[in-house]
Amino acid sequence: MSGPYFTTTVPAPPDDDPFWSSRLHALVMEWLQTNNINHVIPRRDITITGPPDTRTIHYTAFVLSGDGRIQIDPNNQGEALVEERTTPCLVEPPATVTEKAT
Question: Model's pTM, two decimal places?
Fold first, then answer.
């Protein structure tokens, strides 16, 4: 028998949102680091799925070169190369920066 399954989203704010210079931004950065996610990621929604205690974070990450530089997408010159990644959710995001759905 399976337990409850929840989806939580940390929405990406628009470029002109004052969030990027607020305390909420710092909370998201701390949460990313706690979950071993490089905080230099594209402005995209981050989703956490699964039942309590076995949740997974789904996020978009820049693809980096061997020297740590963001690679350019060979199919879309001028755009950064990105990929979808997952990682175990070690710590839930702060409630103040999430949207929760069931």
Answer: 0.81
Per-residue pLDDT tens for 67-100? 989 999 999 988 999 999 999 999 999 888 886 5
Nearest to 32 by CA among 98, 79, 78, 93: 93
For 70, the 3-state DSSP assignment is strand
Cα–Cα distances (Å) from 88 to 13, 31, 57, 60, 79, in that order, read 23, 13, 6, 14, 28
SS3 of residue 86 by DSSP? strand
Is the Cα torsion angle 76, 70, 27, 15 positive or negative in sign? negative
What is the biggest distance separating any 2 CA atoms in the chain, rounded to whole angstroms? 49
> Above 80 in pLDDT, residue 3?
no
Chain segment 5-18, per-residue pLDDT in tens: 788 888 876 666 66
For residue 62, the SS3 value is: strand
Q: Where are the domains of the chain?
A: 6-101
